[in-house]
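Re: the request from the purification team.
They wanted to know what the chain is likely to look like in 3D before they choose a buffer screen. I agreed to run a prediction and write the result into the notebook, where they can find it.
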Amino acid sequence: MSAPAAVVPTDGSIFWAELFGDPAPVELEIGSGDGAFLLARAAAMPRRNLLGIERSPGKSRRLAARIARLGSPHVRTLQADATYVLELVPSASVSAVHVYFPDPWPKRRHIPRRIFSPVFVAALARALLADGALYVATDVAVYMEHIRAVVLADRRFDEVVPGADHPGVSTGFARKYRAEGRALHLARFHRVPGAGDQPRPAAVKIRSS
């Protein structure tokens, strides 16, 4: 007998209000690590609800303890695989998703382990509100090329010039890599309102915000 399908809530406002006790817009960070971004974002955007998803049990425990100690009322954390979490998020209910410095899995045989896949991007497109944003940062140029190719193959996204205020520069990895003189590769993608589910043509353009 197959397992029953997960029941996905349809009313995003109720789903998130029950989790946060507040109807403010919601942003997700996938791979929250030490929480540097979550805390910086909470300080900069006090009227946003932030959910940090961390797969590592050890990191997740330390992150949850840090958030609890600092008493950040609009921040929640979850130890889970983000791909599965996205399947449970109500459609068109998230304002922004942040993915910073994901493991690039540089060896060819490990490429299928990369988090950015067509399935993952489709899940992001379903979760994001129309005009929602996907922010990405990495220090690996070839991985950013892969990310752009996968995201822009889905016609529900286009790319926006990231700008100097890209939130990915507030992460711990970003500060570390800049101090080491390493280049940061930043991207911002926009959830196109009303776009369908078919792949886009091969030629894509980056628009300015």
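For the purification team: Residues 12-207 form a domain with the Rossmann fold fold (CATH 3.40.50.150).
Please add any questions underneath this entry.
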